[in-house]
């Protein structure tokens, strides 16, 4: 009979009192058989009555670590580990600890049941596609059952086939704000008593980011999409051409000083306005700069806008038309500086000056409409459903000929036409307007990127770095978070988003088809 005599010597006065210290101890010795080769340690959990004992030891054929446990009946869990990963386990095995001789227990894992699981280690994009999982039973045990869960939520499994299971899991389980690790837990148990089980845990990296690249300096110019290329222009004067599919840098072209205007695209050619106020063209495919330049007189240029097979660009008080081969002519001379982006409305062009005059001209430069708003126009003009809209620095969104909306904050970002609605950014609010109606959607931080049409709604960048998608009915969802403020974004022909941030980065992102149900 074996007793813990050191306790009776030290606490002998309490032996007559009874209680947990007045007990008879026994010993448990384990023999492990059929341990898979990938197991390197064993976790043990023994329960006798209301007492529990836990330990983790290196994997071995014989384990003798429970040398002072109370006698009685209980249960034992044995878990095989390969590093931190659970390989297999046996749970709830009955044990009887006797005081007269060591209790012995043989635990047979029968080399499993071990599973082969085919699942991507990294899921590079977040889409509505399912992540396919194939589980093969290496043990071919009769009556083997499988349970699966993602983030603790059970996954519905199909009936077992002759070799195992084939099922998929929904990346939506990862939640909204990405990237995130989606953990899939699998447990297979043989139909026997006590159950013989194998556990596996797999981590799938779910994200929307397709690739990320570095810029030479800050850029607030929306990236241009030219066929299979993404083109960026930054404040150091560098134009960078990325492969649209991979993000690999294909070409760089450096001009002196910052690039002042957004990029215009004509198939393979990309047009920029440099610090010398010259319009230059380069090939996105080759990175070569055209042999011609077009001087632009009179100050900072606006965006380059496609028109009549060529381009128009406003600089100072002049509106210049540039033909594809580089010849240029002044179409219109305004009485005041043109600060806002020209808007092409069929054969006509709408312009707004800092003096608040909004004019619509034809291809020959003849004035069709002339409205004096007596306010500094910085957003717009745009036209939808026959109405011209502008946004002003004193916080008004104006449908010319109708009642203005006083939004209380300056409207400086370009306006967006979304069907018959106009979308404007003011402070931390996104405004959806049509004549007589206005919906204000408040966002988490000030808007730093102009609204971009996306999936029937508007995509905007925030100072917090979030790219937020907003529906006209006010529903919103975060697409991604950039480092620093999200400054500008463009949408590729296949529906991806390319955005630039204040930390001099460019990132290509993908959203699932049903991005916002």
Structure description:
With 517 residues, this protein is mainly β. It is 1% helix and 54% strand. It is built from one helix and 47 strands. The strands form eleven sheets. Strands 2, 3, 5, 6, 9, 11, 12, 14 and 15 form a nine-stranded mixed beta sheet that branches.
Essential attributes:
47 strands; 4-stranded antiparallel sheet; disordered N terminus; 517 residues; single chain; 1 helix; 9-stranded mixed sheet
Point out poorly predicted stretches: 1-21
Strand content: over 45%
Straight-line N-to-C gap: 71 Å
Look at the helices and sheets and give the structural class: mainly beta
User: What do the pLDDT scores average to?
Assistant: 81
Shape descriptor reads elongated
Please tally the helical runs, counting DSSP H or I stretches of 4 or more residues.
1
Helical content band: under 10%
Quantity of strands, as a count: 47
CA radius of gyration: 35 Å
| Quaternary state of the chains | single chain
Largest sheet: 9 strands, mixed
